[in-house]
Design a protein that fits this description.
The chain is mostly loops and 187 residues long. The protein is 5% helix and 5% strand.
C-alpha cells in the first residue's frame, strides 16, 4: 500500500503503478513519462505540475485529484473515473478520455488539441476559457457544463447531450453545431 506516500520530484520512465493504492499520495512535479496507472487508486492525490506524457490511466480512480499544470500529452484515460478532478492549465494534446467520467471536473484555461472525449461524461464540468481544436465530443454528455468563453475549431459534436450547458461568448461554433445545440434547448 502506497496510500499517502510522497514521491515529490521522483523520476522513472515507464514506471508501472497498475492497481496501486496511491490515495492521497503527493506526486507533485514527478517525471514519469510513459508510466502506467491502469486501475490505480489516486483519489485525492496531488500530481500538480507532474511530467506524465504518454502515460496510461485506463479505469484508474482519480476522484478529486489535482492534475493542474501537469503534462499529459498523449495520455490515455479510457474509462477512467475523474469526477471533481482539477485539470486546470494541464497539457492535454492528443489525450484520450473516451468513456471517462469527468463530471464536475475543471478543464479550464486549456489548449485542447486533438483530444477525444467520445462517450465521456462531462456533466457539470467546467471548460471555461478553453480552446478546442479538433476535439471529439461525439456521444459525450455535456449537460449543464460550463463552456463559456471557449473557442471552437473543427470540433466534433454529433450525438452529444448539451441540455443546460452554458455557451456564453463561445466563438467558432459552425452553423451546423449551432443548429445541433438549438435542438437540445436554449444555449
Amino acid at each position: 500500500m502506497l496510500s499517502g506516500t510522497v514521491f515529490r520530484e521522483a523520476s522513472g520512465e515507464g514506471a508501472d503503478f497498475s492497481w496501486a493504492n496511491l490515495e492521497q499520495a503527493n506526486l507533485g512535479a514527478v517525471n514519469f513519462p510513459q508510466a502506467v496507472f491502469d486501475g490505480a487508486n489516486l483519489r485525492l492525490a496531488s500530481l500538480e505540475a507532474a511530467n506524465l506524457p504518454e502515460s496510461r490511466w485506463r479505469r484508474a480512480h482519480l476522484e478529486q485529484t489535482n492534475l493542474s499544470r501537469a503534462c499529459l500529452v498523449g495520455a490515455d484515460f479510457t474509462a477512467a473515473h475523474l469526477p471533481g478532478t482539477n485539470l486546470r492549465a494541464a497539457e492535454l494534446k492528443s489525450a484520450n478520455f473516451q468513456q471517462a467520467q469527468l463530471y464536475q471536473s475543471r478543464l479550464e484555461s486549456l489548449n485542447l488539441t486533438q483530444a477525444s472525449f467520445q462517450g465521456a461524461s462531462l456533466v457539470q464540468a467546467s471548460l471555461a476559457g478553453t480552446s478546442l481544436f479538433q476535439v471529439d465530443f461525439r456521444e459525450a454528455d455535456l449537460r449543464e457544463a460550463n463552456l463559456q468563453d471557449t473557442v471552437w475549431q473543427e470540433v466534433r459534436l454529433f450525438g452529444a447531450l448539451v441540455a443546460g450547458a452554458r455557451f456564453t461568448r463561445a466563438r467558432g461554433l459552425s452553423a451546423l453545431q449551432r443548429r445541433w445545440l438549438e435542438t437540445q434547448g436554449p444555449f
